[in-house]
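Do me a favour: review this protein, sequence plus structure tokens, and tell me how the chain folds. Record follows.
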Amino acid sequence: MTTGRVAQASLDVTLSALRAQFGGRLAEGVGVRGQHGNTLSEVPNQPPDAVVFPKTTDEVATIVGLCATNRVPVIAFGVGTSFEGHVNAPYGGISIDTSLMKHVIAVNRDDLDCRVEAGVTREELNQHLRDSGLFFPIDPGANATLGGMAATRASGTNAVRYGTMKDAVLSVTAVLADGRIVITGGRARKSSAGYDLTRLMVGSEGTLGIITEIGLRLWGVPEEISASVCGFADIRSVCDAVIMTIQSGIPVARIEFLDEVQARACNVYSKLDLPETPLLFLEFHGSPASVVEQSERFAEISAEFGGKTIASATRPEERSRLWKARHDAYWAARGLRPDAKGISTDVCVPISRLADCIGETKADGVASGLLAPIIGHVGDGNFHVMPLIDFNDAGEVAAGAAFVDRLVRRAIGFGGTCTGEHGVGQSNMKYLGVEFNAATLGMMATIKRALDPDNIMNPGKIVAP
């Protein structure tokens, strides 16, 4: 079982075979390898020993088979937008970059589904669908690959209406640790045939197999889309308005929270003039009449809690400007302290506990002396706090780590989870023992050992060796 850095002799044999098979599609340079380790967060970069660029599922199977023979780790790579160290290679090994696997294999318009290769990004898919009247709504902000989104069970701004990747994936094709290729299902919208292997692979983060193709649900493009921004005096009012909106059955498509610190960051970075108070960014989808009704019903609810509509937009370019500011929130927050790095967090709680959890977290950040902007997909209780830390200051690093630890334990104590959408990776492994009991963790470990007895599939993630 892989528990330490791969033996040099085994690596040399594997690299020799990969050079013969893939030629120029095997990269061993320091720069390329560094780009295939973690780059977006405070998790240290741990590059692989080499990167290979397959074009087909069969080529992925060949790579995995060679690595399995020599017990060399394999790490799947999309575009590297994950925060939690998923793509790091703590034991060395081979990064399998899916960026050449770009085919949209089929679009079945009548059935509202499609099949794509793992390297297709969500924006590329929607560009391909632009004349079909269909779209793929799962939007994590980054232009991530659909293979990576499936592997991490990604979510995003539209989840409150359209669900997450676990709801959108119909089936996957995956390469297992011994090089076998499995297909977990067909195109039917429901099935009771055997174990739900699709859901097993979705969210497995490359630890059970490498996803190479995905069957996805699609949705019809809404006839009308309206966006708005609503300001509030305090966080409790925001959360109460969100809860009543959800309980009232308003089919809001997006309902995103920014605290006053994040609002200030977005104003500076995106050149906006939003009030620097707690804000909700909203979007409504449907027929022209239904969108008007949804907007009016939300305005009535928000007014009960002191909310005031700041801006609204129906024209695509106006809506895009507002949502680009939301999607750029990470970089905007980083701009508040350009020399600092952000610790990205991803807790999720029942929405009835949202105000308590955010309120206690803000108070904790102030008491800790940390600049920690907050954004959130509050329609499903998911929010992100990003304390900005000078990693050259040992005291600040310690304060940031302690703050994050309290945040995660607080969320779990409220009936929540350590990660709503980013995944476990390396960062959240230590919290699985807080969130789950020993029997549950043991079941995960049993599955891992059964499918990957030599621990070569993205080792060091989710299940400790």
Q: What stands out?
A: The chain has a mean pLDDT of 95. The chain has 17 helices and 19 strands. The CA atoms of residues 25 and 53 lie 5 Å apart. The two ends are 8 Å apart (CA to CA).
